[in-house]
Design goal:
By secondary structure, the protein is of the alpha+beta class. Helices cover about 20% and strands about 25% of the residues.
Length: about 750
């Protein structure tokens, strides 16, 4: 019997060039036939013969006709039902036989409502529909695939299961919004896959990893992996319920910034990286001992180049497999929550790499990025910028943000490189950028995206934090969108960090001429909700370690850093310290090596610094005056900011109850100051809660014998005063003794 297909259609199918395979393959009603019947077609390369297996299990199986030697078979079946559940028995050229389900007899995996929302760019759970999902369709188990590629001529799922042959599993196109889908029966968890995309121009494209994949195979291989993230049983209900009612602006936030692959390695296993589960236990123990409230992870989203530290992301929905599975990462977050520690993810919606299997030129067009290099390239980093003016791209990123908070229970997103998103001329010379419609350099589309991001996060996940790494004076970054702000909860105080590091690098003899480095930050300290960051960015690319930046000999370097930490914990703003800074890592951070934990066995200085950070964290959490009014000027008062000659500053921090206060005083010179008088609001005994020059911290142990009595001698406009001994390069924290647990 001659084929029911035209020769050109047959040729398109066997060459993998047909853009609508469901119009040809699978069951189709034959309207011109005298009796009701359906023609079933299957493209089975390498098959020697194919047999149609009747669904009733009684009727005799029928051989299918080979209509093209490359493996196109068909059969006409008398029936009125187009969607009946038949199977195919296939014999390959090696004589091996098997029975399979025909992918082209199954309906779409996406509802009309899903397609509508994705076309509109408002599907907040797009990750539940796009990508690869284990499912049962019409009683048959398999994997449903879906991908957005609106300008592609043809999209196929390829993998080990079909010999990476794009002709075998071409997908169904939904032309209204450019989404392609296909259910492949019989596939199971762990299957490796990519999308083979043919562009309209016919130019060859690299096989593309799934933008919505939940898992990947280990680098340098680049395939996506089918993985279910639904099986993990969470045990952090108490944490999540309490978190929903948190206002972190009024709570202590001490963040330990960590790169999972280099915080600690296993010398007994060839210095290999810890797994997520190993890291969970060791890091939770350490963070608890050190008094941190949160851990912030450098990006763990899947990235091909390890040296990018995760900032060049390919798998936006996949924790990197370098340290384990998605379930293992869920365990990591869950375990830290059960130990009372929050987890923040460094999230990168600002740019993506050019790796050919990634988002770049995804469907043969500039889909996720801009076509014009004046808008689409990050020349400084060699990466590409997202096109925030495209609703589907925004939906991709917004869905991703909500995904990590929803499915992985993360407690916050620190958004990387916000300044590079906000400015069209970021890191560009004149003539290398295009102004906005008003002639300015503001990226209006990125501004709208960031506002929407913050609105959605706080609407759906109250109690989390969004934190902007924004290095300019863009106004109202951490103010609500309804007053014109960007809507972030917090912003990194980059100016404070740079001023302080510049100051502490100076020989103390010159510091009197740079006293404004200490005080300038208080002129704008309450213009935003700030985090005080001592981050990884300052420990790489030849900048040296935090300890190495300090001036002086070894003793002075440690003393400078101890004094700095006291100033930092007294200063308004939440706290962030990169790993290694807490014990004085000498060496600049190297992502390929563990921190130098052995330093803690080499003399008292490293141990002392670590103990100081631990005691500061514990004191910080114990004293509401150090955190309750971080973002309002009512929580801070200078006692004396004018002693530039002595390089000394002193100030008060107040809690919501203004009678609850602490005194902080820092001497940034190596000269001890005896009989140094500062004014205080009330009389009584002031306990010296912390002295960074204590012998237990590696200092010279000069101090005030545990405290000092206030005298009724006015000073600095206050009715009482303290006569103090200020140790060299040291900070003190004092508090009226009433109610103080000494």
């Amino acid at each position: 019997m001659p084929s029911t297909l035209a020769a050109e259609v047959i040729e398109a199918i066997v060459r993998g060039a047909h853009g609508d395979p469901f119009a040809v393959l699978g069951p189709h009603e034959m309207h011109a036939a005298p009796e009701p019947c359906v023609v079933v077609r299957a493209f089975l390369p390498d098959a020697l013969e194919a047999t149609f297996v009747h669904p009733d299990g009684v009727s005799e199986d029928q051989p299918m006709e080979l209509v093209h030697p490359d493996g196109l078979f068909e059969i006409v079946v008398p029936t009125r039902d187009v969607l009946f559940p038949y199977r195919l028995r296939v014999m390959d050229r090696q004589g091996q036989g098997c029975e399979i389900e025909d992918p082209y007899r199954f309906p779409p995996t996406l509802s009309d409502y899903d397609l509508y929302l994705m076309g509109e760019g408002s599907h907040l759970r797009n990750y539940e529909k796009l990508g690869a999902h284990l499912m049962t369709l019409n009683g048959v188990s398999g994997v449903g695939f879906a991908v957005w590629a609106p300008n592609a001529k043809r999209v196929s799922v390829v993998g080990d299961f079909n010999k990476w042959d794009g002709r075998r599993h071409p997908m169904r196109n939904h032309p209204g919004n450019g989404i392609w889908d296909l259910f492949i029966p019989g596939l199971t968890e762990g299957a490796l896959y990519k999308f083979e995309i043919k562009s309209q121009s016919g130019e060859p494209l690299a096989l593309k990893a799934d933008p919505f994949a939940f898992a990947f195979e280990p680098p340098p291989r680049t395939a996506s992996r089918v993985f279910s993230i639904d099986a993990y049983q969470w045990g952090d209900t108490s944490w999540m319920e309490a978190r929903a009612h948190q206002n972190w602006l009024e709570r202590p936030v001490a963040i330990y910034e960590v790169h999972p692959g280099s915080w600690m390695r296993s010398p007994e296993e060839g210095h290999s990286c810890l797994t997520y589960r190993e890291l969970a236990h060791r890091l939770a123990d350490y963070a608890t001992e050190m008094g941190y409230t949160h851990v912030e992870l450098l990006p763990i989203t899947e990235h091909p180049f390890y040296g990018s530290w995760g900032y060049q992301t390919i798998g936006y929905f996949a924790p990197t497999c370098r340290y384990g599975t998605p379930t293992d990462f869920m365990y990591f977050v869950d375990y830290l929550h059960q130990r009372g520690i929050g987890v923040i993810l460094d999230w990168v919606p600002s740019h993506f790499p050019r790796d050919p299997h990634g988002l770049v030129y995804f469907d043969g067009t500039y889909l996720y990025e801009h076509e014009d290099p004046r808008k689409g390239e990050h020349r400084e980093w060699g990466t590409l910028t997202f096109n925030y003016g495209r609703k589907e791209v925004d939906n991709f990123l917004l869905g991703d943000a909500l995904f990590w908070l929803e499915r992985y229970h993360l407690d916050g997103l620190r958004v990387d490189a916000v300044a590079s998103m906000l400015y069209l001329d970021y890191s560009r010379k004149s003539g290398e950028w295009i102004p906005n419609i008003y002639g300015g350099n503001e990226n209006l589309e990125a501004v709208a995206f960031l506002r929407r991001f913050n609105e959605l996060v706080y609407e759906h996940h109250p109690g989390v934090m969004t934190i902007a790494e924004e290095s300019t004076a863009w106004p109202q970054v951490s103010r609500p969108t309804y007053v014109g702000g960007l809507g972030f909860g917090l912003k990194w105080n980059m100016g404070w960090m740079h001023d302080m590091l510049e100051y502490l690098a100076l020989d103390p003899i010159y510091r009197s001429h740079h006293h404004n480095n200490l005080t300038f930050g208080l002129l704008y300290a309450f213009s935003e909700n700030f985090v005080l960051p001592l981050s990884h960015d300052e420990m790489v690319h030849g900048k040296g370690s935090l300890l190495g930046k300090m001036s002086g000999d070894d003793w002075q370097k440690f003393a400078n850093l101890r004094c700095f930490y006291v100033f930092m914990y007294g200063h308004p703003g939440k706290k962030l310290l990169f790993m290694g800074g807490e014990f004085g890592q000498w060496r600049e951070w190297d992502h390929d090596r563990s921190l130098d934990w052995h330093l803690l066995t080499e003399g008292p200085y490293h141990q002392g610094l670590q103990r100081l950070v631990r005691d500061l964290n514990q004191l910080y959490q114990r004293l509401p005056a150090l955190y309750e009014v971080d973002c309002d000027p009512h929580g801070f008062e200078w006692i004396d900011c004018h002693d530039w000659q002595g390089s000394i500053v002193s100030f008060l921090r107040r809690a919501k109850d203004s009678d609850d206060f602490v005194v902080v005083i820092c001497n940034f010179t190596p000269v001890p100051r005896h009989d140094y008088r500062i004014g205080v609001p009330t009389g009584g005994y002031y306990a010296e809660l912390l002295n960074s020059d204590g012998a237990i911290y590696g200092g010279s142990n000069l101090g005030n014998g545990g405290g000092v009595e206030a005298e009724p001698i006015p000073e600095h406009g206050r009715p009482f005063s303290l006569l103090l001994t200020l140790p060299p390069l040291a900070g003190l924290i004092l508090k009226p003794a009433t109610g103080v647990a000494l």
